[in-house]
Amino acid sequence: MHAPQYHETLFSRLYPGNQHSSPTYLPVLDTLTQYLNFTPAQKARTILRSDSGFGSDANVNEALYQQWQVVTKGTGGRRPNALARQIAPGAWQELRPDDRWVAAIVDPPPYARPVQCLALRWRTQRGDLKHSTVICSILDWSMAEVIAHYDARGACETEIQADKGGLKLG
Asked: CA–CA distance from 127 to each of 95, 98, 99, 121, 163 (Å)?
């Protein structure tokens, strides 16, 4: 949740400082559910957009069980590369010329509800290929739309970094 009046995310406001994200997700999700008291229809229109620190299978599944919509980067490790190796070379859709592609994962992990499970591939400045996964419960979005919605979280992250930079007192 982006809170524009103080340019922070709900998570960083409740859990300030540097810490692992994943353990905070379920308590905040439970509190959010109780506080907002959304109807099922409201939850169906609300997207929880998060980065890989929150993207464990358990966190994603709990949000899906609770009927929230999600757009999240999956937790890293070896899984993204292993899943990307299963994708045929011609299946990658170019997002940016010569440095960013997306493809549907051939054999995705099972989730609590149907989701799009995508592999994102990009070329670093050194020319190395990197991979991550993106999970999205909005089934009618194209792969490019899923990634665009996921990328939109970057504006919030940029604001947070700017805010944190401004807090460094001499």
From this structure: 17, 10, 9, 12, 32
